[in-house]
Amino acid sequence: MRRLSVRDLLKAKETHFILDLLAGADGLDRILTVSEIHRPGLAFTGYLDYFPGERVQILGLGEHSYLATLSSKQRLTSAERVFSAPEVPCVILTRGLTPHPELLQVAKTLRVPFLRTGLETARIIEELTVYLEEELAPTTTVHGVLVAVYGLGVLLLGDSGIGKSECALELVKRGHMLIADDLVEIKQRAGGFLVGTGSELIRHHMELRGLGIIDVKAVFGIVAILDRARIELVIRLEEWNEQVEYDRVGIAEQSATILEVKVPEIVMPVRPGRNLAVLIEVAALNQRLKNLGQFTAQELNERLIRHMAPGTSNPGPPFVPPAR
Predict the structure, then answer these.
(1) 248 is catalytic
(2) Catalytic choice (95, 182, 217, 288)
């Protein structure tokens, strides 16, 4: 998980928010640890049970109006009560409101960054939640290729030189979309699923041995690329080994664990003559059926078991017409 400070949040105002620092500059290195947001209206009244101090504290029109009904001394006490929680990362005042001077005084004393935005409360909560979920999500990077096949994010893994990029190129030629080649950045989203994207520096570029680096967007057009995709299938390419008994039925399901999330995995042997692009297309379509509740191999196995069960009539060998 990336360490995100209030200083980073303040820098992000150029692209995400409109934030101004009003007080507490000495606390800009405080760390944000969660993506949830909190409005401390109840805490200002003195009820601090279950107060989530680790969250960004948002002061909207309701909190601002309530504090206006208090005396200066009461506002100081209320602000100290909320701002003194050691894990509070920062406080944001919305709607461009003029802050009560007591809040700025306490924020400066306790070194709690006090920020202001012109956005409405609901809007900044929405924008900030999305931003923090993106920045604080558990992240890892893997060496592989990510393609969208029939709308399904397929992560191709395997040793260097096994043919991942060439396979992805064939899939792009067949109308599918490239997300990332060589380095795939993966983030875990709320809900327990994974989203992959390419490194910003080399996004939508592909390295092909003997050919070099190509810009997939420039060569095949914008319809051949995608910025990100949910990873729903992992296909591990490996050299064909005659000593290994590969799965020929598909009943036993395998899974790969990435960021503590299990994703269906297929080990696909590579040898001359195998059309990997077509096999990956079929694997993606079959996985989509599984996602919809149709498990073909298992259904066939159950039919065979019922057919061989004691008491089941045996239809006998198929009829073969006599030769003329």
Answers:
(1) yes
(2) 182
DSSP run (H or E) holding 147 = strand 139-149
The token duo for 115 is: 């920020």
Interatomic CA distance for residues 205 and 53, integer angstroms: 44
Domains of the chain: 4-136 (3.40.1390.20), 139-304 (3.40.50.300)
Report yes or no: 190 and 36 within 8 Å, Cβ to Cβ: no
Mean pLDDT by 10 residues, the chain (324 residues): 85 77 95 94 92 95 96 95 92 96 96 94 92 90 95 94 91 95 91 90 86 91 94 93 72 86 92 88 91 78 78 56 58
Q: CA 47 from chain center: how many Å?
A: 36
Q: What pLDDT is stored for residue 17 in this prediction?
A: 74
Q: Respond yes or no: is residue 324 known to be catalytic.
A: no
Q: CB-based contacts of 102: which residues, under 8 Å, 6+ apart?
A: 72, 75, 76, 79
